[in-house]
Amino acid sequence: MLLDLRTDDYDKDIHPFIKNGIIIDTCVIKTLIDGFIATRITKKRSEDMEDFQMALAFLDRIKVGNNWGKFFVTPHILTEVFQHFRKDYCDWKNYPEVLKEVMPFIESMGEENAKKLNILQYIDSNNPVIEMGDISIFVITDNFINDDKKVAILSADGDLTDRFTDNNKVLAMNYRRIMLNYN
How many Å from the N-terminal Cα to the C-terminal Cα in the chain? Predict the structure, then answer.
């Protein structure tokens, strides 16, 4: 199910999915980290960072702004996040300070593990596209579905969120698409 902020009711259409947590994709975490570092460390104005502003506005709209405990990652997502972080910031003189700015945000999030055998089922040997972060999201989402629980996914990756459009147990939230349609 895709979220539509123009018509969806929070109590009926959003809360039942996010109460079990929100699986957050690498691209969203990277946008948030880059925005936090830019505004807190380099003192850049958040108004100059459209994607960061859009992500924060979206989180406020779904009533989870700054409630990082509502989100969870997989070890695969965490690995991707820190690979981006290291690539983008390791040469900064104040790298330890930058890391200290990010750690509380990451530490507050929960974690779900995707088992190796479940991951391997998603790899198509005829067309091997191996995006471990995305595959781990598929596995965790399927775990929720198989346990007859609702869950939300937050991403800016249309291919990832579109995969769950027709599933009534999953609230697929592509914050860029939603906010551009909402405004």
Answer: 20
Name the β-bridge partners of 24: 154
Please write the tens of the pLDDT for every residue from 55-112: 999 999 899 988 999 999 999 999 999 999 999 999 999 999 899 989 998 999 999 9
Q: Give the integer Cα–Cα distance in Å for 100 and 7.
A: 40
CB 115 within 8 A of CB 174: no
Q: How far is CA 181 from CA 69, 113, 145, 147, 155, in A?
A: 27, 33, 28, 32, 16
Residues sharing a CB contact under 8 Å with residue 106, sequence separation 6 or more, in sequence order: 29, 73, 78, 81
Local structure of residue 158 (DSSP, 8 states):
H
pTM of the model: 0.91
List phi, psi (to 5°) of 126.
Answer: -80, -25
CB-CB contact of 176 with 53 (8 Å)? no
Give Cα separations from 104 to 66, 68, 89 (angstroms).
11, 9, 17
Strands (E), 4-143: 22-24, 71-73, 110-111
What token pair was written down for 110? 């929960």
Say if CB 156 and CB 30 are below 8 A apart: no
Residues 172, 2 contacting (CB under 8 angstroms): yes
